[in-house]
């Protein structure tokens, strides 16, 4: 990759600021002073130093975010706050993106990364990655509803008609007097408003929704709403199914 891009992504400033560093002749690649920002380097094999300090470049970044309501799962928006707006500036340098999306009023686990290969693996239907949600539902969920989820539900809107893959619906608690249920839903797709639409298809309404896990990665219970942290190596391996 280009030297100026590597230095910028390592937190040493904008491309313009990095060029000023290079002109000062304080950047070395394999003990040779480099002033050309277009110089190509391999961060895996080349020794790169700025002012005598080694640069430890990390190609990919991985974050776990506990998404709050009111924030959209996008990289930019002119109206709403996005999940990237919740990141510290240094954590945005390598342009991470949300893996899939959560609706604006849905909370919970969202992975942010710039690893396109991992994103594809997690979102591709052929890989059957489970996504678990906790939902509070207006209505009493029945055994018939559980069976309907297992069989797949035909969802229709103005854009498409499709049959969902078999999904798991587990009743955690039912309040018959209030006519509400607390449930867990496991799906393998991520269609627009899918959980809400599936619940609506059996005559109920989601009033609160939170994603608990994606694949084998579970939301850190200590992570407050709106907070995020880097994934550990073990957690990255879980997402890569290693």
Quote the average pLDDT: 93
> Describe the biggest sheet?
9 strands, mixed
User: Between the first and last Cα atoms, what is the distance in angstroms?
Assistant: 28 Å
* Percentage beta strand: 25-35%
Number of helices: 6
Structural class: alpha+beta
Taking all Cα atoms into account, the compactness measure Rg is 23 Å
Which runs of at least 5 residues are low in confidence (pLDDT < 50)?
A: none
* Shape, per Cα inertia axes: elongated
Order of helices and strands: HHEEEEEEEHEHEEEEHEEEH
Helix content: 10-25%
Describe the structure.
It is a single chain. By secondary structure, the chain is of the alpha+beta class. 20% of the residues lie in helices and 29% in strands. It is built from six helices and 15 strands. Strands 5, 6, 7, 8, 11, 12, 13, 14 and 15 form a nine-stranded mixed β-sheet that branches. A four-stranded antiparallel β-sheet has the order 2-1-3-4, with no helix packed on it. Strands 9-10 form a two-stranded antiparallel ribbon. The model has no long low-confidence stretch (mean pLDDT 93).
Looking at this protein, list some descriptive labels.
242 residues; elongated; nine-stranded mixed beta sheet; alpha+beta
What's the short version?
This protein has 6 helices and 15 strands.
């Amino acid at each position: 990759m280009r030297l100026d891009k590597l230095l910028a992504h390592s937190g040493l400033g904008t491309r313009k600021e990095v060029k000023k560093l290079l002109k000062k002749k304080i950047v070395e690649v394999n003990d040779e002073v480099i002033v050309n920002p277009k110089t190509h380097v391999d961060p895996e094999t080349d020794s790169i130093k700025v002012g005598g300090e080694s640069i430890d470049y990390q190609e990919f970044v991985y974050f776990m975010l506990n998404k709050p309501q009111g924030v959209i799962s996008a990289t930019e928006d002119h109206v709403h706050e996005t999940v990237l707006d919740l990141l510290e500036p240094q954590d945005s340098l390598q342009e991470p993106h949300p893996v899939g999306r959560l609706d604006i009023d849905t909370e919970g686990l969202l992975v942010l990364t710039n690893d396109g290969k991992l994103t594809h693996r997690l979102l591709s239907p052929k890989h059957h990655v489970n996504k678990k949600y906790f939902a509070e539902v207006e209505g009493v969920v029945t055994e018939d509803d559980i069976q309907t989820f297992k069989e797949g539900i035909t969802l229709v809107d103005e854009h498409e008609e499709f049959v969902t893959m078999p999904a798991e619906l587990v009743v955690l608690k039912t309040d018959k007097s209030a006519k509400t249920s607390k449930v867990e839903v496991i799906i393998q797709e991520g269609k627009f408003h899918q959980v809400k639409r599936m619940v609506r298809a059996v005559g109920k309404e989601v009033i609160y929704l939170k994603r608990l896990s994606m694949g084998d990665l579970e939301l850190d219970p200590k992570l407050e709403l709106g907070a995020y942290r880097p994934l550990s190596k073990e957690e990255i391996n879980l997402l890569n199914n290693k």
